[in-house]
Design a protein that fits this description.
Helices cover 48% and strands 11% of the residues. The chain has eleven helices and six strands. It has helices spanning 18-31, 38-45, 54-61, 67-84, 91-101, 114-123, 127-130, 148-157, 171-180, 197-203, 215-221, and strands at residues 5-8, 106-110, 134-136, 164-168, 183-187, 207-209. Strands 3-2-1-4-5-6 form a six-stranded parallel beta sheet, sandwiched between helices. β5, α10 (197-203) and β6 form a beta-alpha-beta unit. α1 (18-31) crosses α2. The longest helix has 18 residues, at 67-84. The chain starts with a strand and ends with a helix.
Length: 222
């Protein structure tokens, strides 16, 4: 196998959370005075930390983005996730297979806050496969599309970034993986994809999968 480790994004790759989180965020921004559609909200915030758009949020709502507002967002988002979250089809089997094949050298590198990532992995039964190798861009100097979170994940596994495969569903995330020096595979499911196959390839993905079931076989053939 040409890759020594696999680094997974979380939202939209391992768990089907994008529509849930975006729905809560969109509703709360509308309540705060920013009239935008779910589609527009997704385009603006996909793959990013909410606070990365602080200036725009404050301009559009006419209100400061406070810690209290963020805490309310996290609480409402988590309530929905706990009630509705499911693993992406094929993700659990792909992770289980690659964890065994690579001797545990897999990590999760997300642009979301660490508590959310850990909660989601635990909820769908994936937490034991990643252990301590779970990282958030919130805890690093810069989040995606900066490479920091993928560099941290690779370092935790003791693998050079150039020997890592990154799995991403957003163009922002693909750019982060490429900037880290990793090879990036895009994930574009038939329903609910946030970026098109063409957008993922343009960002630097060397291949695009439509089904997570395909990932172990593609890695074996790569």
């Amino acid at each position: 196998m040409s890759f020594q480790a696999v680094l997974f994004d979380c939202d939209g790759v391992l768990v089907d959370s994008e529509a849930i989180t975006n729905g809560v965020l969109c509703r709360m921004l509308n309540e705060a005075g920013w009239a935008l559609s779910p589609q527009a909200c997704l385009r603006i915030f996909i793959g990013k930390a909410v606070r990365s758009e602080t200036e725009r949020i404050e301009r559009e709502t006419g209100q400061p983005l406070t810690d209290a507002w963020m805490a309310a967002f996290y609480a409402r988002r988590n309530e929905r996730l706990i009630a509705e979250l499911q693993a992406m089809p094929g993700a659990v089997q792909a992770v289980r297979t690659l964890h065994a094949r690579l001797g545990g050298r897999i990590a999760c590198a997300s642009g979301a806050d660490l508590a959310k990532v850990q909660m989601q992995l635990a909820q769908v039964g994936l937490a034991p496969y990643f252990g301590a190798h779970v990282f958030s861009g919130h805890d690093l100097p810069a989040s995606k599309p900066a490479p920091d979170v993928y560099l941290a994940a690779a370092a935790s596994l003791g693998v050079a970034p150039g020997r890592c495969l990154v799995v991403e569903d957003t163009a922002i995330g693909v750019r982060a993986g490429v900037a880290a020096g990793a090879t990036v595979v895009g994930f574009c499911p038939p329903q609910g994809a946030v970026n098109t196959e063409a957008q993922l390839r343009e960002a630097g993905a060397v291949h695009v999968l439509a089904d997570m079931h395909q990932l172990p076989a593609w890695i074996s053939a790569a």
